[in-house]
């Protein structure tokens, strides 16, 4: 690919992380402003701006573009899907018809729609005398009772009970009639029923191997951060890591659900809901229960509620929506704390850089008066500097025992000010490639930040927001600059959140990951890419879990995979994707050696590690005619490889046994076999090796069973429905379903 073609592809990929290329008004808006501004103004005037605040301020104030920008943005109006009592009534009546016909699953869906569309009490007295919501909840509770799902019935009844003093007598009678058998069932079975144990929302129950790392939040002590000149900060192994070790369990800094899952998943925790409850004002989103609803409505959703339809219709990317979520969940006061903390952090960094430059200049001056070093002395000096950099932590992460308290107090003053909690800036230290961005890229992202700012003004995010004819004030510009920074860092650091959809006929065959949302994880974002990753990931709720799939030694890079993997894509395809999407050229072993894809990969190209301790030489397997005895060209010792080859064959037999156990629906036992074999393989051999890579993929599938899964189950003959379950719940759900089917 030519340099011009590479640049064009990279620009296209970058644009797709901002907005859709084929739909939505934002594309037309940005292209119109770009045409008015002209490439020369964008490059020569806008391109000279060096701060995010300066960029967004120019969009609103520069005479070249401000009129065109404001002409469109001032037409921004609140747009959302409100409540509709008539629609709610229609769905509720359909639900009663379905329930009367014995179609309880259909009835639940219809009652759920009625609940979500129903206005709260007193909002619309012309339909059902304003009692549409309690009527829908009672209808759904009665259906849950018919399905013997008493816990869900009681949950709906608890919402009705909150309205009790406003209900007419006939609804109170209906409420008491449904509640009585539910409570009787719970009392009769409270000792025999297995309680549904849920971890706190967003928190995975998996424990970290080796314990928690005090210097690397949410990570294991088996990990450390290394800073290199070429690869930047990256995660390395601090201690030996074995396959299956849990290395990170991290809640998201921010997360947003994909719009296509608004009707099936909780807006806050991403769980697949059974008895959804809605926002008090809009019908755009749903929540799995009271807790998630209250958390969302008290923070980000109170700002996003009235503009969700507008945001989706604009054609913005999901990363742009996540950039807004990072802002709305912080709130106006939180945004200003982050803004001030970033400015102070930048000022401190500038002072440190200036001092470092002065020290370097002094060293140069001193060295000029000293005799020149020999080549060997220079090599020793370079090795010492490299060794120091490998284990050097960033200044904000270093802490000596005697100065620990003082450092923490200083950081709190810089980042938290009068707030007792320290502002979390980890996500803002992630890479943005600011120096490599074009002026046009910055300009389009500044336009998106301006649009999001106007949306926030419309929904009352700011106290005393400026009027349409006025330039944004300093607080509004600060928030817009924060939005612009979000749009940059999310491009390279966000993760897709998925659930595993199991196959219809088999637990593993036909299963696939389905991406339901996007999130940003500050610690996991530090993992670099490798086309042969050392870890796999899955999700428990919104929390990400990172586990090792192969053995690693201290100092080895612990890399995940950004999408392009050597078993499925050619070297050219991987390099093109990574350069366009993430702006780097991969130099992992699989790329340097151009490993073959699965189509041509075999077990015969495996390389055996030299048996001599400390020798890193890799050898080709001995032929059938050879006795396996050779002289190693590295350690110069005679070594015997036949035994190592036999141990590789034993690993292959264990892999096959593990796959057979997976066929029997025993993921835990299969995982133990696969991990045991993988650990043995990496002690004696080195990839590529087809069976090992297949086994690592199979082990990843087994581990994913501990995360979010969606089961395809025959609920009521002959209909099918997905039932969402979290770890520890699906076995109980199976028993409940089997009882219903038997009846």
TrEMBL record:
<protein>
    <recommendedName>
        <fullName>SET and MYND domain-containing protein 4</fullName>
    </recommendedName>
</protein>
<dbReference type="GO" id="GO:0005634">
    <property type="term" value="C:nucleus"/>
</dbReference>
<dbReference type="GO" id="GO:0032259">
    <property type="term" value="P:methylation"/>
</dbReference>
<feature type="compositionally biased region" description="Low complexity">
    <location>
        <begin position="345"/>
        <end position="374"/>
    </location>
</feature>
<dbReference type="InterPro" id="IPR052097">
    <property type="entry name" value="SET-MYND_domain_protein"/>
</dbReference>
<feature type="compositionally biased region" description="Basic residues">
    <location>
        <begin position="375"/>
        <end position="385"/>
    </location>
</feature>
<dbReference type="GO" id="GO:0008168">
    <property type="term" value="F:methyltransferase activity"/>
</dbReference>
<keyword id="KW-0489">Methyltransferase</keyword>
<dbReference type="GO" id="GO:0042826">
    <property type="term" value="F:histone deacetylase binding"/>
</dbReference>
<dbReference type="InterPro" id="IPR046341">
    <property type="entry name" value="SET_dom_sf"/>
</dbReference>
<dbReference type="GO" id="GO:0005737">
    <property type="term" value="C:cytoplasm"/>
</dbReference>
<feature type="region of interest" description="Disordered">
    <location>
        <begin position="344"/>
        <end position="420"/>
    </location>
</feature>
<feature type="compositionally biased region" description="Basic and acidic residues">
    <location>
        <begin position="386"/>
        <end position="413"/>
    </location>
</feature>
<keyword id="KW-0949">S-adenosyl-L-methionine</keyword>
<feature type="compositionally biased region" description="Basic and acidic residues">
    <location>
        <begin position="731"/>
        <end position="743"/>
    </location>
</feature>
<dbReference type="InterPro" id="IPR044421">
    <property type="entry name" value="SMYD4_SET"/>
</dbReference>
<feature type="region of interest" description="Disordered">
    <location>
        <begin position="724"/>
        <end position="743"/>
    </location>
</feature>
<dbReference type="InterPro" id="IPR011990">
    <property type="entry name" value="TPR-like_helical_dom_sf"/>
</dbReference>
<dbReference type="GO" id="GO:0042051">
    <property type="term" value="P:compound eye photoreceptor development"/>
</dbReference>
<keyword id="KW-0808">Transferase</keyword>
């Amino acid at each position: 690919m030519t340099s011009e073609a590479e640049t064009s592809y990279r620009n296209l990929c970058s644009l797709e992380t901002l907005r859709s290329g084929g739909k939505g008004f934002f594309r037309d808006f940005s292209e119109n402003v770009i045409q008015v501004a002209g490439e020369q103004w964008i490059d020569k005037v806008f391109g000279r701006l060096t701060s995010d605040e300066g960029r967004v301020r120019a969009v609103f104030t520069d005479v070249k573009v401000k009129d065109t920008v404001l002409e469109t943005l001032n037409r921004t109006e609140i747009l959302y899907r409100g409540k509709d009592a008539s629609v709610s009534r229609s769905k509720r009546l359909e639900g009663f018809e379905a329930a009367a016909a014995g179609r309880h699953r259909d009835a639940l869906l219809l009652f759920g729609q009625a609940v979500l569309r129903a206005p709260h009490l007193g909002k619309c007295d012309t339909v059902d005398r304003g009692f549409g919501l309690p009527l829908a909840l009672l209808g759904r509770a009665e259906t849950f009772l018919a399905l013997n799902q008493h816990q869900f019935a009681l949950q709906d009844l608890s919402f009705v009970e909150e309205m009790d003093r406003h209900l007419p007598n006939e609804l109170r009678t209906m409420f008491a009639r449904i509640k009585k058998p539910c409570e009787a069932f719970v009392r009769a079975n409270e000792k025999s029923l297995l309680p549904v144990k849920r971890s706190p929302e967003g928190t995975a129950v998996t424990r970290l191997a080796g314990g928690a790392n005090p210097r690397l939040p949410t990570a294991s002590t088996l990990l450390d951060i290394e800073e290199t000149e070429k690869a930047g900060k990256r995660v390395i192994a601090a201690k030996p890591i074995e396959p299956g070790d849990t290395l990170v369990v991290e809640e998201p800094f921010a997360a947003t659900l994909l719009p296509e899952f608004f009707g099936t998943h909780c807006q806050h925790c991403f769980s697949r809901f059974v008895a959804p409850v809605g926002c008090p004002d809009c019908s755009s989103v749903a929540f799995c229960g009271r807790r998630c609803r209250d958390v969302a409505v008290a923070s980000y959703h109170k700002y996003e509620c009235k503009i969700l339809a507008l945001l989706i219709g604009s054609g913005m990317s999901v990363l742009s929506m996540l950039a807004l979520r990072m802002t709305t969940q912080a709130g106006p006061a939180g945004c200003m704390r982050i803004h001030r903390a970033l400015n102070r952090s930048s000022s401190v960094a500038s002072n440190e850089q200036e001092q470092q430059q002065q020290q370097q200049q002094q060293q140069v001056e001193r060295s000029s008066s000293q005799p020149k070093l020999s080549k060997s002395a220079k090599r020793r000096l370079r090795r010492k500097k490299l060794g120091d950099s490998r284990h050097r932590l960033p200044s904000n992460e270093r802490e000596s025992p005697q100065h620990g308290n003082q450092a923490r107090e200083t950081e709190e003053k810089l980042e938290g000010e009068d707030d007792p909690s320290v502002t979390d800036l980890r996500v803002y230290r992630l890479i943005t490639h600011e120096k490599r961005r074009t002026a046009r890229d910055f300009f389009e992202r500044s336009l998106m930040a301006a649009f999001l700012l106007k949306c926030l003004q419309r929904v009352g995010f700011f106290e005393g927001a400026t009027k349409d004819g006025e330039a944004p004030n300093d607080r509004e510009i600060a928030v817009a600059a924060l939005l612009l920074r979000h749009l940059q860092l999310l491009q390279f650091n966000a993760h897709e959140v998925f659930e595993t959809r199991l196959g219809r006929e088999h637990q593993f065959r036909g299963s696939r990951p389905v991406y339901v949302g996007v999130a940003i994880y500050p610690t996991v974002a530090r993992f670099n890419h490798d086309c042969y990753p050392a870890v796999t990931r899955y999700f428990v709720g919104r929390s990400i879990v990172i586990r090792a799939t192969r053995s690693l030694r201290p100092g080895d890079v612990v890399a995940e995979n950004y999408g392009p993997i050597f078993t499925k894509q050619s070297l050219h395809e991987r390099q093109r994707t990574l350069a366009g999407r993430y702006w780097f050229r991969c130099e992992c072993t699989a790329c340097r050696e151009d490993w073959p894809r699965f189509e041509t990969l075999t077990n015969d190209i495996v390389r055996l590690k030299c048996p001599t301790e400390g020798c890193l030489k890799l050898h080709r397997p001995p032929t059938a005619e050879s006795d396996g005895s050779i002289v190693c060209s590295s350690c110069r010792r005679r070594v015997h490889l036949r035994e190592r080859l036999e141990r590789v064959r034993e690993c292959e037999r264990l892999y096959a046994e593990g796959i057979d156990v997976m066929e029997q629906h025993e993921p835990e036992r299969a995982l133990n076999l696969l991990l045991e074999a993988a650990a043995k393989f990496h002690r004696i051999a080195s990839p590529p090796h087809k069976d090992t890579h297949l086994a690592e993929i199979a082990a990843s599938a087994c581990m994913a069973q501990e995360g979010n899964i969606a089961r395809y189950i025959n609920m009521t003959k002959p209909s099918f429905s997905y039932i969402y379950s979290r770890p520890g719940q699906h076995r109980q759900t199976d028993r409940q379903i089997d009882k219903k089917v038997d009846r």
